[in-house]
Amino acid sequence: MASLKVYSVGRLVKHITDSSLRSLRGNIYRSSVRGYSTEEKAAEDSSGDKQMPTTLEDCHKQIETLSTEVSTLKQQLKDYEDKYKRALADGENVRRRMMKQVEDAKSFAIQSFCKDLLDVADTLSAAADSVPERAEAHAESAAAALRSLHDGLRLTRAQLDQVFARHGLVAVSPLREKFDPNLHEALFTQEVEGFEPGTVVTVSKVGYKLHERCVRPALVGVAKG
């Protein structure tokens, strides 16, 4: 019976001791945490106090510093805006050039084809001009044949001119006009009465331009002073 009491008292003492140790450890931990938080807050307060100016002179210095920073930022903003506007302008110029190139490609895609047809048109014109409008022939059938040939050549030449015009190919026959080196090629110069110097006096070969671009210059003679 005595041993049972001793055992119970021992367990009670151990329980009280363990509870006291746990309570003591908790108090020490909470005290350390509170101490650390207090020290950290004090350090932050002290650092904040250091940033605040304490005298009027310090206030003026800080104002000057902030004013300088604001001026620098404004200048940087202005530079960035200028670069942005320049970039927009460059992009717009590139877009316009690309659109112009695309339009030119569409308009002048048939330039080589038109140029190849010009010799055909010259030959047809020469054939039409070689036949007089009123052919005099001994035989009535020969005269009718010549008239039919003449009318056919004229009609074909007119249709060809219409096709050229529909696709933007225009003849350049600058008789009595001022010589233009962009559209004309001078074969010779001569003194001709009634013509001012630099005026086209004769057209040896008609020129052509496609949508205001010269594809073949007119071969001309020019009056000289």
UniProtKB/TrEMBL annotation:
Keywords annotated in UniProt: Chaperone, Coiled coil, Mitochondrion
Gene3D superfamilies reported in the protein's UniProt record: 3.90.20.20, Head domain of nucleotide exchange factor GrpE
Chaperone recorded as keyword: yes
Domain of life assignment: Eukaryota
GO terms classed as biological process: protein folding; protein import into mitochondrial matrix
DNA repair among keywords: no
One Gene Ontology CC term in the entry: PAM complex, Tim23 associated import motor
Coiled-coil annotated spans: 56-97
UniProt-listed SUPFAM superfamilies: Coiled-coil domain of nucleotide exchange factor GrpE, Head domain of nucleotide exchange factor GrpE
Annotated compartments: Mitochondrion matrix
Gene Ontology terms for molecular function: adenyl-nucleotide exchange factor activity; protein homodimerization activity; protein-folding chaperone binding; unfolded protein binding
Family membership: Belongs to the GrpE family.
Function: Essential component of the PAM complex, a complex required for the translocation of transit peptide-containing proteins from the inner membrane into the mitochondrial matrix in an ATP-dependent manner.
Protein name as it appears in the record: GrpE protein homolog
Organism the protein comes from: Papilio machaon (Old World swallowtail butterfly)
Lineage of the organism: Eukaryota, Metazoa, Ecdysozoa, Arthropoda, Hexapoda
